[in-house]
Amino acid sequence: xxxxxxxxxxxxxxxxxxxxxxxxxxxxxxxxxxxxxxxxxxxxxxxxxxxxxxxxxxxxxxxxxxxxxxxxxxxxxxxxxxxxxxxxxxxxxxxxxxxxxxxxxxxxxxxxxxxxxxxxxxxxxxxxxxxxxxxxxxxxxxxxxxxxxxxxxxxxxxxxxxxxxxxxxxxxxxxxxxxxxxxxxxxxxxxxxxxxxxxxxxxxxxxxxxxxxxxxxxxxxxxxxxxxxxxxxxxxxxxxxxxxxxxxxxxxxxxxxxxxxxxxxxxxxxxxxxxxxxxxxxxxxxxxxxxxxxxxxxxxxxxxxxxxxxxxxxxxxxxxxxxxxxxxxxxxxxxxxxxxxxxxxxxxxxxxxxxxxxxxxxxxxxxxxxxxxxxxxxxxxxxxxxxxxxxxxxxxxxxxxxxxxxxxxxxxxxxxxxxxxxxxxxxxxxxxxxxxxxxxxxxxxxxxxxxxxxxxxxxxxxxxxxxxxxxxxxxxxxxxxxxxxxxxxxxxxxxxxxxxxxxxxxxxxxxxxxxxxxxxxxxxxxxxxxxxxxxxxxxxxxxxxxxxxxxxxxxxxxxxxxxxxxxxxxxxxxxxxxxxxxxxxxxxxxxxxxxxxxxxxxxxxxxxxxxxxxxxxxxxxxxxxxxxxxxxxxxxxxxxxxxxxxxxxxxxxxxxxxxxxxxxxxxxxxxxxxxxxxxxxxxxxxxxxxxxxxxxxxxxxxxxxxxxxxxxxxxxxxxxxxxxxxxxxxxxxxxxxxxxxxxxxxxxxxxxxxxxxxxxxxxxxxxxxxxxxxxxxxxxxxxxxxxxxxxxxxxxxxxxxxxxxxxxxxxxxxxxxxxxxxxxxxxxxxxxxxxxxxxxxxxxxxxxxxxxxxxxxxxxxxxxxxxxxxxxxxxxxxxxxxxxxxxxxxxxxxxxxxxxxxxxxxxxxxxxxxxxxxxxxxxxxxxxxxxxxxxxxxxxxxxxxxxxxxxxxxxxxxxxxxxxxxxxxxxxxxxx
Length: 976
What we know:
Layout: E1 18-21, E2 39-43, E3 58-65, E4 80-84, E5 90-95, E6 114-121, E7 133-136, H1 146-149, E8 152-160, E9 166-172, E10 175-182, H2 189-193, E11 197-202, E12 205-211, E13 216-223, E14 226-227, E15 229-230, H3 237-241, E16 245-251, H4 258-263, E17 265-270, E18 273-278, E19 296-305, E20 310-313, E21 321-322, E22 336-342, E23 355-358, E24 362-364, E25 376-382, E26 391-392, E27 397-399, E28 405-413, E29 415-421, E30 434-437, E31 441-443, E32 455-461, E33 470-471, E34 476-478, E35 484-492, E36 494-500, E37 512-515, E38 519-521, E39 534-539, E40 548-549, E41 554-556, E42 562-569, E43 572-578, E44 591-594, E45 598-600, E46 613-618, E47 627-628, E48 633-635, E49 641-648, E50 651-657, E51 670-673, E52 677-679, E53 691-697, E54 706-707, E55 712-714, E56 720-728, E57 730-736, E58 749-752, E59 756-758, E60 770-776, E61 785-786, E62 791-793, E63 799-807, E64 809-815, E65 828-831, E66 836-838, E67 849-855, E68 864-865, E69 868-870, E70 876-891, E71 904-907, E72 911-913, E73 938-943, E74 949-950, E75 959-961, E76 967-973
Parallel strand pairs: 2-9, 10-19, 22-28, 29-35, 36-42, 43-49, 50-56, 57-63, 64-70, 70-76
Antiparallel strand pairs: 1-9, 2-5, 3-4, 3-6, 4-5, 6-8, 7-12, 8-9, 10-16, 11-14, 11-17, 12-13, 15-16, 17-18, 19-20, 19-21, 22-23, 24-27, 25-26, 25-28, 29-30, 31-34, 32-33, 32-35, 36-37, 38-41, 39-40, 39-42, 43-44, 45-48, 46-47, 46-49, 50-51, 52-55, 53-54, 53-56, 57-58, 59-62, 60-61, 60-63, ...
């Protein structure tokens, strides 16, 4: 079987049968057991267009004891390579090398009497488990090589020792599909012969595993399109000239099912047009015939119809026969168009896979897959990369037009929201939130309908209490890197309290203007007067039916302007003044006013009494009534009244000064007559932090006369101030071992407040594995820290200082972070304060990656180290950092001479220089030897990643940037 005709595509595999014809003898043979085993073999059914054995075809043979499994064959007797002798269906096989020779006495001595032989094609020298031999019928992305895609298998059972010749019969374990294309009235012979027609099978699995012991095939879920092999050369020249074409493919067997009906398609490409036949388009009565059987061939006879973009079948008949015969089948297919997705500037990930879709089909648009763009969010798909075409969101329905479509990812900068808070508003709604891109400048709104009773809007602030950044309505605001709330700021309004005379003469009190909710004191009637009336206060209504307020009462500013009307009452009374034994001068003028009117009492005027000081007024001569000081308010009673002058000896005052006190109030001053003995108070509520009260002194610094609390003090002939004297308190500094494992804490220190003392060391204190690191006012070390021997000021209270401990050594451990080989370095233990030396990768390796150092972050975002020294401050875990490498390989694409360039290894984004043809040559079969035109001209290299042609000699295609995947550069030759 020609290797050049094998396909690389696997659909669904059934079981290949290996029939072994053997010759056995009933009687014991008198021949040497060292004889070689001889084989003949044949292909059970005609397989592909080139199905005969070729001289270089190799089969694998297992020789095992009868009924033993192939996997248990003795070493050296498993998977021996034998080569076909001739290019005929029935041929002999000889060992590929001397070491592959099988002999009758190979397994045991004396030799076993009966053997089994297991044979298969094509030979694979790397089989490790005969029960799971890998099958892949679609090994390349080009036309299927049907010869090597096929799989043959046979089992010769119970062959007697020393049989002269073992006859092997290998059967085909896969299925064959033949498609015959004929011209039509719309696609005539000229259209087909003048173009390039190709065919593809879609919707079947291409991989599986085969059990050489049992002949069973297991299918792997791997669905790929198979490019069918063009075998039009098997047609007559007349048929080819008439526009007929023939294609074949080897498929993995598959039974009929709804899944197969929905998935199976044949796709034909002629020039720029693509046509698709779907299996489920077959008439319902014939759908049960859609399947592929082991060792069978299916023949579909079709014609292309470009008017309807369909493939029409000659007849509706599906025949299932051996591979040397076949019947046609009728079906229909519509043209498919390509729907692809493009990252449009994405910095990472892969776009969703491409789709072939029929015109009018509805596609649910996918998510971006693994695509990402740093600093952006995915915003859907657009028909134009600029985002100015038709846009679609994830999950939207997309109706396929009658042409190929590329959808481009749309990326949006991250957005954040500015929200608004009414901050105590009493009505209205906050403005609509603003959402925009970070660092975008927006204009802040006004308060809109927001309102707060008695207040005016004063702008926005980033804090509720207004302690943040302030912004006026209409000002510019830059969107920050997080959502933010702006709080309305309210300013109290000012309103006016006006006073109305309400029929009186004179001038009403001056209006009072102040902020809402402010408490003010209402005036009296001032100069207002009304004949025959006494002033009776104020009211919010002219007739006095509203709220009433007396002169001098408190009034809270309301949330609007208000007028208070004077209220007038009849009746007046007189206040007369009596000198009460005065020896000179005249009494003040009497005062007549309305009842309840508040008047200011006068002083003594010119009145005097020898040896006395004026002491105010009293309602009784002897001073036993109500007393009033000069200038004090006096309310007119409901009758005339006489106030009597009160005379007092001269007095002086003793005042008290806190002298630096930190709290409380000084005792009340003592006023008494000169030379009067009074008792001095103690400090009362006075206090000074860290001090005790020590009495009084006439001098601030304590250099005058000193007096104890409770002592007697004679009033001097002048006012005097006594100053509090303070004495320092003592407080204690205690020491705590804070988890110490041995020793005792230092002795406590007791001294006066504000005294500077020297802190001790740790003394005998110790903590296993730690060193002493000083003292701290908090157990966890979050307070104030002090070194041993440092100065410490005694505070105004007892205090405990806690020992602080530091580790003596730190451990640095290493993580291979996904390494595939080598050994992670051993942990490093470093004494505190010593340098740690972090080495390189050592023996660590990771497939297709290059070591880039160590990092505190598994993704390399932390601190990095590589052959460096540093002083650690804690235990550390360092992760290996790896950078992915990719490979560019070259495919000569059928070259017949020269050498393909060596593979190139590079990182993503590296510039790859594409070589030229070099020594590569490709000879066109059928040309005369020596004819220079027999070599196909080299066009360049086709890039498997972007599909572009490089290395043509043009300056703009001599290099490309390495993508995030391996790349195959396939030689492109000019077709003759």
